[in-house]
Amino acid sequence: MQQPVAAIAGALLIALAFPGTSLAASYDCKKASTLTEIVICADQRLSVYDEQLSAVYNRIKKANPLAESELVNSQRKWLKSRNTCSSDVGCLSNAYASRLLELQQLDRSQ
Description:
The protein is built from 5 helices and no strands. Keywords: Signal.
């Protein structure tokens, strides 16, 4: 039980150390509500991954409206999986790298 508390405390310390910094996440870091979102906002590499993933996802969604439902469902499933990483930056990096590769391959095939 102490690990989650320590992880939350660590993420909050990171967030407090850089007040007003919202790096480049694809969402408003001031509204980050989960530990995973806070960690993504506090880590520049994860923020960049998040921006890149968002751009590719939105491009695919716009280019192929007939497949939008399937894409949205797969993204929701991925987000649930990503969130299991919690504050583990390595796990989050791997999750983003895998999803980016998957979406980039889908983007090229269209």
